[in-house]
Amino acid sequence: MQTPTHPSVEVIVVGAGLAGTAVAAVLGRQGRRVILVDPRPSYPPVFKAEKIDQEQVQGCPRRRW
């Protein structure tokens, strides 16, 4: 069995959700050697990550349109 080889990396980001993808992109643009690891093989073409807790909703001002 052959062992896969990888170039040396500075950062391993685990989780390709919104935060993981963003931090990997920022670090990569800064010239860091980054590997992004996620158990899912791919994401849908339109990537969305939305979550609003009840506490956040209560803090939003109410508007009448």
| Number of helical stretches of at least 4 residues | 2
The stretches of 5 or more residues where confidence is low (pLDDT under 50) are none
Total strand count, please? 2
Bulk shape: elongated
The helix/strand class is alpha+beta
Biggest sheet record: 2 strands, parallel
The largest beta-sheet arranges its strands as 1-2
Q: Radius of gyration over alpha carbons?
A: 18 Å
Concise summary:
The protein has 65 residues and is of the alpha+beta class. 26% of the residues lie in helices and 12% in strands. A two-stranded parallel ribbon has the order 1-2.
Per-chain topology:
Blueprint: E1 11-14, H1 18-29, E2 34-37, H2 54-58
Parallel strand pairs: 1-2
Task: Write up this protein.
- Helices cover 26% and strands 12% of the residues.
- It is built from two helices and two strands, in the order βαβα.
- The protein has a two-stranded parallel sheet.
- The protein is elongated.
- The mean pLDDT is 80.
Q: What key phrases describe this protein's structure?
A:
65 residues, alpha+beta, two-stranded parallel sheet, 26% helix, elongated
